[in-house]
Amino acid sequence: MIDQKTLTTPFVGPNSVRLVRGFAALMGVLILLQAFLAGRGIYVDLGLFRTHRFVGMATLLIALIQVGVVTASLRRSRERSMLIGMSSFVLLLTVIQLGLGFSGKNNGGVAAWHVFNGVLLTGAIAAYANTVFRLETAPRIEPIESQSEAREGGSR
After folding, report:
1. What are 8's strand-pairing partners?
2. In which band, very low, low, confident or very high, does the pLDDT at 5 lie, cut at 50, 70 and 90?
3. Between 9 and 32, where is the model more confident?
4. Domains of the chain by range and CATH?
5. What integer pLDDT is reported at residue 18 of this predicted model?
6. What count of Cα atoms within 13 Å lies in the side-chain half-sphere of residue 39?
């Protein structure tokens, strides 16, 4: 018997760990692919910008799903709140990125912000993925009662 303690983990189940980490990795890969396509589109083949746009729209969809996956896959905890905030920030930057991409098609000033936001988005997804992959997945023991209750002899 564990006596007034419970085993907890921030994740709902073992598959939810893989799901959250998988979406974080997928977002990172999509963002790197975007940078590659943009660079090749500028210097090698302008036709790659069509693919760049398609991958950008797919990235937005994945960012949106990612917020839902985090919300559904973690128990209410400090970690859940932090990851919902981080994944929502990534979603916001992705929405801005898509808007800048469409607006900057014929406007160099807007296109410059598109590049800047892309770098910011890369950093945000790197920080998010680092946090997700460092989360504790093994159950840990947390006391249910406060220390003052324990000194008083537990509940009445």
Report:
1. 140
2. very low
3. 32
4. 5-151 (1.20.120)
5. 84
6. 7
Report the candidate in 65, 84, 85, 81 with the shortest Cα–Cα distance to residue 19.
65
8 A C-beta contact, residue 77 and residue 10? yes
The three-state (H, E, C) secondary structure of the chain, written as one string: CCCCEEEECCECCHHHHHHHHHHHHHHHHHHHHHHHHHHHHHHCCCCHHHHHHHHHHHHHHHHHHHHHHHHHHECCCHHHHHHHHHHHHHHHHHHHHHHHHHHHHHCHHHHHHHHHHHHHHHHHHHHHHHHHHHCCCCCEEEECCCHHHHHCCCCC
The pair phi, psi for residue 121, each rounded to 5°, is: -65, -40
What is the distance between the alpha carbons of residues 13 and 18, in angstroms, rounded to a whole number? Answer: 9
On the question of pLDDT at 147 being above 60, the answer is: no
